[in-house]
Write a structure and sequence with these properties.
The chain contains 19 helices and 14 strands. With 528 residues, the chain is α+β, with helices and mostly antiparallel strands. The strands form six sheets. A four-stranded antiparallel beta sheet has the order 4-5-3-12, sandwiched between helices. The N and C termini lie far apart (66 Å).
Length: 528
Amino acid sequence: MSSSFRMGELGWHPKLPKRNVPLEVVLNPQLVHDDDEDAEGNSRLCVSVRDYYCYMLQTRPAIFNPILCGARLLQQWAVDMYVKIESCRLRWYRKNQTQIRADLYKGVVDAITSGETRASIVGVRIVLPGTYPGGDRDMKKRHMDAMAIVHTYGKPDIFLTMTCNPKWEEITNELLPGQTPQDRPDIVARVFFGKLEAMKDMLFKKHILGVVVAYVYVVEFQKGGLPHAHFLLIMDSTYKLIVPEQYDRLISAELPDNHKYPELYAMVVKHMMHGPCGALNPKNVCMQENGCKCRYPRSFNDNTAQGKDSYPVYRRRDDGRRAKVRGKMLDNRWVVPYNPYLLRMFNCHINVEVCSSIKVVKYLYKYIYKGHDKASFSIDQPDADEKNKFWKPRVEHFQIGRIVSANPAEGDRYYLRVLLNHVTGKTSFDDLLTVDGVLCGSFREAAERLGLIEADNTLDDCLTEAEQWAMPCSLRRLFATILVHCEPGNVRGLWDRHLEPMSDDYRRSRTSPDEVEQMVLLDIRGML
C-alpha cells in the first residue's frame, strides 16, 4: 500500500495495514477531524484534513508541485483549505455539544449576558467553548489573563511591533525562478516564525532590552498579507524605564550618521521612515480628515520628554540629516522610534515604544486582543449558533491564574465570587456557606448574612474591577444589569463614579460632554 513518510517523501511499506475507510470519507476528507482534536472524538480513519494539505504544500527535490507554482492562485487555495479545516472543526463542536458541556452556556444567564431577549432560543444554542481559539470566550479569557498579569507585575514598560520583511534572504533564496514573495505565502510565514522565535530569544534569554519578568504577544496578518507581531513587555524592577533620559538608551527617533553607520542608516531609511504624507502627499493611506492619523511629521525636540497623551516625545534634533524616501526628502521628524541593535539584527520594521503611563495600559491590551476587524450585522432569522458569528484571530499569550469574573445577573455564581473575594480561610463550599454556625441554602444568603451585598460598595467594586478589562459597551450593559437585578441604593453615585469609563468610546468621536452623556443614557435605556 502506498504511503507518505513524516517529511512528506513518497514511498512504499509492505506491512501498512489496510483500513476500512467509508467511501464518504474518501470523497470528502474534510469529514475527518483535525488531529489537534483527537482527544475530542476523532476516529482517525485516515489522515486529518490539515495533515493532508500540509503534505500537499511540501517541497520535494526533483518533484514538480503545481500548487506551489500557482502564484496568486496559491493564496486562494490556501484560504479555501483553511476555511475547510475550520469548517471541519466547527462541525465537530456542533455535533459534540455534550462533550464540551455546552449545557453550562445555554441557560438564561448566558442569554442575558449576551443581550439575548428572545426566550424562544434560550436553551437551544450551539456554543463554542473557551478552548476554541479565536472564540468570544477564548478572547475574553486571554484579555482577562493579561489584566491579571498587570495586577501581579504592574504596567507594561515597552510596546514592540515586528513586521515581516519580504526581502529577507531566507525568503528570496527559496523562491522558484520568476516568483515573488507574494507568490509564496507559505515561505513567508515559515521564515517569519523563525525570526519571531529568534526575537523572543533576544528579548527573553539574552535580555537585549533588559530582564523581562512577564510578557504578552499576538501575531496578526496585515491587509497586504505580511505577518507582524505585537509585544507588551513588563520589565524587572531593576530595568524599569522611569525617566526620559533612560528612554534614549534603548530607543532612537533620529537618522543615524551615514558615514559612521552606513548599514544602519540604510535600514532606517528603508524600514523606519513614515510617509511622506500631509502636504507632501495628501493621498497617503494614513491621511484622515486632512491630517495624518499617526501625527507625522512630529516636531523637532532637543531632549526626550514625557508627552501629554501618555506617550513620550522622543528626541528629534534638527541636525540637518536628510534622506530621500519615495521621492521626497525627509528629516528626523518622520522617523518611527526604533532600537538600533534590533533593527540591525533583524533588518525589518521594528517599532519600539515606551509605555510611560498607566493610562495606555488598557488601550494596548485591548488593542492586541481585539481580534481581526469584523463587520457586524443582524438578520431577521434568529441564529443561536455561535460558530456562525465570527471568523477567528490567532493569538498566543502568557497566562497566570486568576478568579474568573462574574456578572450580577448570573445569580449564585456572582455571589460565590463575592464570598471568595471577601471571606478567607474557607476550605470547602459547605464551609463557605456556613455563617455563624448556620449552613445557608445559597451563596446569596451567605453573602447577605455577612453584609456583603447590602452596601453599594460591592456594586462599585464590581464596576471598578470590570473597568480594568471590559470595553465601554460591556460596562454599560453591566450597569444596566445592576439596575435591574441588584437594586442599588445610590444609583447617582454609581453613575457619577463610572460615567467616564462607560463613555470612553463615545468621547473619542465626540467633543461635547453633554452629547456623550446623552449617548450613554440612550444606550443604557435601550438595554433596559
